[in-house]
Amino acid sequence: MSTLVSDLILARLSSLHPKKIDLSLGRVSRLLEALGHPERHLPPIVHIAGTNGKGSTLAMLHAMIDAAGLRAHRYISPHLVRFNERIMLNGQPIDEARLSDCLDRCERANADQPITFFEITTAAAFLAMAADSADLVLLETGLGGLYDATNVIDRPALSLLTPISMDHEAFLGDNISKIAISKAGILKPGCLGIVGPQPGSALDVIKAHAAEIGAPLLIHGRDWLARAEDDFLVVEDGDTTISLPRPALKGAHQIQNGGLAVMAARHLPSLIIDEHAIASGLRRVVWPARLQRLTQGPLVESLGGMHDLWLDGGHNPAAGEVLAESLGALSAGRPVHLVVGMLQTKDFANFLKPLVSRVASITTVPLPEEPGAGHAAEELAAVVVAENGQANIATSLEDATAGLARRLKRPSLVLICGALYLAGYVLRTNS
Question: Where in the numbering of this chain does the Mur ligase C-terminal domain appear (predicted)?
């Protein structure tokens, strides 16, 4: 089937529920029953939830699995360029024929009943992954955990919790404890959970829930640690200390993500991923739009050869803190100029706070190809000015980079950030 067929089906599926997000397991459970419960026929599953770092952690774990000669399926969201990226079968994006077939089967089985886009496409992912053999499934929650459509899994091989912070407050709650209740919902009785670094209030919730349901935990700071030492990632797992290469992914935060991936690789039941494969995976991992340097394409050319262009899809306050911590090492003393667009549902002011004093200017842009979904560039610029930042307004991403090329007189680092939608547009148009 052609690309057009899957696009048409996806467009129809997006209209089956009046809300984009409606957290519940009833609809997806009904559909999976109609499909013969493909989720019960999957290879062993690593289920991951958290606010930031889920994708990077799974990417590193996937690279380790590959290096060990094992095969894994992976389900993530959202995608950056094409929907096919969400469903990886043995390391490759699902092909158009398989995707269209799985979507069509789900659409027919659903019989026009209300269901969200994420729920029905998650069912399609389960169909696809159940049909192909693999050693493991890497399964990322879409939003939260407890009522996320992926949480129909009864007994994961491992549950992973990345750092929890404020995001999606309208759906998950207005404080860390409430959000942690949702994220901890992926823990299952008798199934090991590995917990990354957490705020105290989140960790209290996780520990209490695990004790209530009988889920054993390995907790960062109690049972394991990850730290950077020179060019190495050092992981302490109980009484064992291993020294590994730093992850290929940039940013100090990738030390903790890498540590969680290492712990997952070491504690997978019935699969052996040795230290050589773990090290190889850390060296080889690739994860687009996470502090990614762009080295070619129209946007790079528009800036001229004097400046470096970087891209990051982070979009919440914790991501702003991570970017701020990473800018010093990336910039090597050069001025940093941000180009920012952001969804209206995101907290731009708190994303900006840790960044504004560390950058020379901030150019705000509307989100391309998402009319009405993003903050107006003028709104974002007003927040920059209120935080005593140097603001510029551009009508488009291309206008922003062209303006910077005219204004910048010394070698600089330009970072496009604030939204995965914006990052996806950059990757589509700049390839």
Answer: 311-419
